[in-house]
Amino acid sequence: MSALTAFYHRYEKYAAVCCFFGGILYDSLTLGRIDRLTDNLILLGYLLILGGLIVLVGGLQTGRFRHARFHTYQWLYPLAMQFLLGSLFSSYAVFYFQSVSLTRTAVFFGLIVLLLVANELIKERLTNLPLLLAMYCFSLFSFFIFFVPVVLHAMNHWTFALGVLLCALALAGVLAAIFLKAPDRAGLKPSGLATGGVLVLLLVLYLANWIPPVPLALRSGGIYHRAEKQGTSYRVEMVRPPRHLFWKKSEEIFYLRPGDRAYCFTAVFAPTDLHITLFHQWQRYDEKRGEWVQTDRMSYAVSGGREGGYRGFTYKQALSPGDWRVDVENPEGQLLGRIAFRVEAAGDRKLEFVSLER
Prior knowledge:
- By secondary structure, the protein is an alpha+beta fold.
- It is 46% helix and 25% strand.
- The protein has 9 helices and 11 strands.
- A hairpin with a 2-residue loop joins strand 2 and strand 3.
- The chain is elongated.
- The model has no long low-confidence stretch (mean pLDDT 85).
């Protein structure tokens, strides 16, 4: 240990960066599906070790732990916590990116990325107990709101409430371990305010539907002139895109002919054995009112487990020219994704169709 200590002090200025990128690299090499038990147990292990280190750091500051051995290696604690926080936030960035849409849910994903970057810059503050507890609260919350639905094979307000309860109990346990028998309890109030404030903020974001609906994720989606199931696959038809737009796999402009239907096809990933109903909310932009108006809300059942997502579609026939969009939502109204398109009259345009298997 003396040799390791000497090596650390020699290259101390590089230690924080190495721990930060080490955590990201480790996750990128080992991380799999959000419902894979081994990955979730690894993340849970990170949280348990991180909680233990926070108790250790807090115990040293409050006089709870006085043995010289605890002080000897205290230079190592911030590095270990930085590695764990880097691993956790990079994992959450991967998982939540899959569920985020370019709407207000991007705010929560932005917070994860911000904490991921900030973790590399705050090594000197990783002994600040309120800051540590605030980051730990965010880490616990981000984990339990997708871990509980994966374990219980259900996703609703009750599973979310259970995740929040587990988060609160873990935080209470850490605070009790630090302050219950500590000679100095001056830090209890700021630490409690920090954790409580973060938890309240996250609850507000959830109630405002600003948190991505993990573990669900919209894998793909688009608008088509026709969609049907053929055995175990789906066949969709779309207007052939221009040659310079050869990569297009759905219709951004829907050319409407008399009697045409617009089909919204989506593939949504859900954990194995999770059964849930999803909704396609069709909306048209009303230029006179200057707002989006819902015209239909159609549902279809999802059975999880397929890597590429559970596939399904809804369709609408009474269309009118203008801007349209389809919001893909879970029963709680959380937004998985949004598919925007414009309806234009086909007129005399000759439409050439191409068939795709999805």
